[in-house]
Amino acid sequence: MTQNRTDHPRGAVALHDQANWNPLWRIERYAEDAAYAEFQARLAQQAERLQSDKGWMARVEQHRSALVLEKQRYAKLARFFDHLKDPGQFEAEAQWYQSAQGLVAVAKALLPDEARQEAARKLAYDVSEFANNGLANAGINELWSLVCGTGGVLFDNSNGYLGAGSSNTAFAAGQTDLQGGSKTRVGMEGGYPTYGTDQKATWQSSFDGNTGNHDWEEFGTFNHASAGDMLNRKTESEGTKTSGQTWVLTLDITLS
């Protein structure tokens, strides 16, 4: 069952109405980790069937190459900056993206939306979608640093996180984190974020059976596991995740 919600968060400006910033959040709920594993297997089958499409495979290879270069760059930087992971971890991730398993992960991330949604309808017990958000001041400043300068921390595969929290406190631009007493950030799925076509970027994180088991009332995008900057925040009552369930949180942002 897919639910669509488009109400505006109280106290926030609907930025997409004024600046053509169109965020769409999506939650796929799987009753158990095994159901999510079956879902991933079906995506892999879908990706295998598309391998004969040379244009699509060229995009997959281009995105995979970008991820390998990203990991190699961070492996060098991590020797000088303490806030980054161990260089060996980045090197291992670069090798993983160069492997057949890494190729499959990237291919799954770049599947057409309808292919993923078809598989989700068969295996997820519920899917919901909701729109809008508020851009946080710190996130706006970080975006301009990335666009106009050489500073800033990217919201990329190495640094990007989606978060869910338990507070329905109205959005305020000065907020720097989710507001709930219970809140969880999870890093990117393999191959995410995706970008470079359709004027859209897509972030996706999977909260497994042991992660994020609390009320889901607020959502945000971050460039650090616990600190860093919050790009945006959205309040929406999405129920309570319980132990054993896998919930997949996706954010699409389209500029037009």
Q: What would the keywords be for this entry?
A:
globular, 2 domains, 7 helices, 256 residues, 11 strands, 6-stranded mixed sheet, 5-stranded antiparallel sheet, alpha+beta
Coarse structural class: alpha+beta
User: The biggest beta sheet, please?
Assistant: 6 strands, mixed
Oligomerization status of the protein chains: single chain
Average pLDDT across residues?
91
| Poorly predicted ranges | 5-17
How much is the radius of gyration in Å?
18 Å
Shape: globular
Spatial strand sequence of the major β-sheet:
1-3-2-11-8-7
Strand content: 25-35%
Give me a quick take on this structure.
The protein folds into two domains: 159 residues, no CATH class; 92 residues, no CATH class.
How would you describe this structure to a colleague?
This protein is of the alpha+beta class. The protein has two domains: 1-31 and 129-256, no CATH class; 33-124, no CATH class. The protein has helices at residues 15-19, 33-49, 54-77, 87-98, 100-109, 113-123, 137-148, and strands at residues 2-5, 21-30, 126-131, 134-135, 161-165, 183-187, 194-197, 200-207, 218-222, 230-235, 246-255. The chain has a six-stranded mixed beta sheet with strand order 1-3-2-11-8-7. Strands 4-10-9-5-6 form a five-stranded antiparallel beta sheet. Strand 7 and strand 8 (200-207) form a beta hairpin. Helix 3 crosses helix 5. It is globular and about 50 Å long.
